[in-house]
Amino acid sequence: MTLDDIRSAGKAGLARGLAELERSPDAPATVALLDAAFAAPVAHVVGMTGPPGVGKSTLMNALIAAWRQQGRSVGCIAVDPSSRRSGGALLGDRTRLTTDPEDQGVFVRSMAARDRLGGLSGLTVSAMVLMRALFDVVLIETVGVGQSETDVVAVADTVLFCVQPGSGDSLQFMKAGIAEIPHLVVVTKADMGAAAGRAMADVQGALSLGGGDNEGWTVPVLMVSSNTRDGIDMLVSGIDSHAAFLAGGHRLRRLRHLQAEAWLVDAVRERFGREGVRRAGDLSLAEGASPFGRLAEVSQYLKID
Ligand SMILES: Nc1nc2c(ncn2[C@@H]2O[C@H](COP(=O)(O)OP(=O)(O)OP(=O)(O)O)[C@@H](O)[C@H]2O)c(=O)[nH]1
Ligand SMILES: [Mg+2]
Asked: What was the pLDDT predicted at 199?
């Protein structure tokens, strides 16, 4: 299947493409498809994380609706931490999806995380790369459990961290030392009243202690209610602002390049262990080079050797 085959077959084509990625990740045709998709990025990739029940999936629905209203197409991946199966989790499982199944401009896929709680499987990364070539926005939802918040950083351009009023999440947020991870912090369930305002102040306090180097980006804290849709437009424009920020000074290109290199090293380690990484030697990628074809080459070499 080529990228054009998928494009012309719409959502059904993408579903078949994703099934290919799952069934034969190492087939030359799959690698060629991923290399082509990697070379033709369209979407801005948004990662959303936060504790269980904070309202991520509900927010995903609200964001999809807002982006669709602007005429932007959206591809979503909901990472399911509870499933240890190496395949795709049940579609729409945790997503509480309310989008129109006939709408060709929205595609949602739920996926199993790998063994690490909340971690991202290799399949999530390939699915993201494929969807990045097909949609205007790609949104990835992962549940933040322990350290796994950091995993979404490895695939997203913009990371949203969700906290809920009255949950002490902002305290957790500080403790976990993840104040440097998100590009936007979202206080969900703003319709819960004063508690939302307090959560916002707490987060702002936590962020001011962070002091991480964000290359000049100031992390905004936004209050939203997915129920009333209050704050959703602000969030959409906040994400756009971060996208515009990344577009300056080659930041986005550099970020994606570093993500691709990190993915390659991870993938080699997963297949061949630390010893494999050592034997592979130089795993750096040329500017703009796809990690998928390179992984295939390196794997070939390590198997023969
Ligand atoms: N009052 C209020 N409740 C909300 C809002 N958004 C979500 N909820 C409720 O919060 C609960 C959890 O919402 P989800 O969207 O499933 O949360 P989640 O973060 O995706 O949960 P996991 O996927 O299990 O981690 C549900 O009962 C929602 O109805 C909101 O804006 N206001
Ligand atoms: Mg959810």
From this structure: 86
Question: Would you state the pLDDT for residue 178?
Answer: 56
Out of 58, 90, 140, 169, mutate this one to test ligand 1's pocket (max ligand atoms within 8 Å of CB): namely 58
Write out residues with Cβ below 6 Å of ligand 1. Answer: 52-58, 94, 96, 143, 188-189, 191-192, 225-227
- For the chain, list residues with pLDDT below 50: 83-94, 115-118
Give the per-residue pLDDT at 124. 87
Residues 6+ away with beta carbon under 8 Å from 131: 14, 43, 75, 77, 107, 138
Nearest CA residue ID for atom 17, ligand 1: 55
Taking the centre of ligand 2 as the mean of its atom positions, its distance from the CA of residue 302, in whole angstroms, is 39
Atom of ligand 1 nearest to the CA of 96: 16
Distance from the CA of 225 to the center of ligand 1, in angstroms?
A: 10
Res 277: pLDDT = 95
